[in-house]
Specification:
Elements (H helix, E strand, L loop, with lengths): L1 H13 L3 H26 L4 H8 L3 H7 L9 H10 L10
Helix pairs in contact: 3-4
Length: 94
Amino acid sequence: MKGARKLKDRIQQELKDAEFKKAFEEEEVFSSIAIALAKLREEEGLTQKELARRMHTSQQMVARLENLDNKSCSLKTLVRAARVLNKRLMIKFV
């Protein structure tokens, strides 16, 4: 836990820099989407291949959606994934 605390403290310090904060918040959006999608898929007991079949796309596309480094998922694709997972996609500005 000590290492995690050091990391948290360092991030808090770095967030004081406006440029770092902007980049950090942007990355957080994309990684949150990828993590949420993977979590929902797993909760439904689906493999990437099964989700892809239901979405009428490829397993590689689902893998890209769940990739933390992916910055190019379309809103249309996310809506389709949500529908297949019996969810509704909500986007809000805070």
